Amino acid sequence: MSEDYHQMWSDLGLNLEAHDALLEGLAQAYREIFLTQEHRPKGMQYFDFVMSEIHGLRVKELLDARENGRKVVGSFCVFVPEEIILAADGISVGLCTGAEFGFAEAEQLLPRNTCSLIKSAFGFKLSGVCPYLEACDMVVGENTCDGKKKAYEMFAPLVRNLFVMDMPQMKTESGRALLKTEYERFLDAMEKLSGKTITSEKLRESTDIVNKKRRAMHRLSKLRAVNPTSISGLDALLINQVFFYDDPARFTDSVNKLCNELEQRVEQKPGVVPHTSPRILISGCPMAVPNWKIPAIVQNANAVIVGEESCVGERGTRNETETDGNNLNALLDNIVDRYFKIYCAIFTPNQSRLEHIKEMVSTYKADGVIHYALQFCQPYQMEAGQIENKLESEGIPVLRIETDYSQEDAGQIRTRVEAFIERITA
Ligand code: SF4
Ligand code: SF4
Fold this sequence. Notes:
The chain has 426 residues and is an alpha/beta fold. The protein is 54% helix and 10% strand. Helix 14 packs across helix 19. Bound molecules: iron/sulfur cluster (2 copies).
């Protein structure tokens, strides 16, 4: 880290001892998993820097922005529209929830059979190790799965200002109407929080900023479709993770610069791995920082991940928000239309997810799909079997993995992944 940030962390009320332990573990994992990779693009240096400053410089930027009157809004889900936050001059940060930390404290409040993602949100709060959460003026929850919906009841007294949005469960007209009502309510809440009026000009501008960020990710995805691939699955996942908390314009610029470099690599060949490397699509629950367990295992098995059908991946970044429309209501409709296409497993039926997985397999020339579901995540576990049966019946090999954030099952998963790679290369 470029500076000693202990005073800043202490002012935020963090538990310094626990926080130091978290950062040490994170830095070690990053060194071992990311910095040992060969043939990395130079453009990854920016993302290495972001990770080295994960609880330092970016948090300081947020606090400086707050000093200047901007509001910081934390979220746990890709259904929270960044367009609306930016239009109120706010800053959107995704709250990580990707590490097994403070689970003993979390289990004092939550049932043990709660998914790691929810436990991690509570664990980070209860053990006082997340500077992002402490820097938030508002945290947005969403009634997606039952686990989250009930967990927010217990989360509300723990954080400064929790705003909970209701979510539809079906892609019907009334479902869309509910999402619109909730986005209107969120827009009002953002105006109140910021003391600023969201005009159509501001909403169009903010939509443009978020679209540019998405467009850069689409460019990256296209490059990953070329064989041999020019970037590792781990590095691409990392970029998808940084997407949630970096400054949007700087992030877009960095991804575009990286893509310029990757375009040259694509022309010149060879890629980051041999063209014969098995190509894997990951599909399932989101992988937040620092959840790198399965991608690291896949990469060590000499396969390459070429796409993520995940909210930290293409499910979260696909589709732009239209910017046509000359009033606030029309622009908000565009936002609703864009987000209503997200096919989270909380929706029923959820055929578009299967269709998109198949489309991704074909676009990225994947040889097989690894379906990743967190233990106790009913929505994704329920869909896993249907997806496996359907894809296998169409000749697409699938490996289903259910896991959590611990490393205890890493050896067993490694054996299963290696056997799967053998199967698809035989
Ligand atoms: S999987 Fe569903 S609940 Fe989780 S981030 Fe994605 S949309 Fe939100
Ligand atoms: S991983 Fe599953 S159970 Fe956990 S919060 Fe997401 S949808 Fe809910």
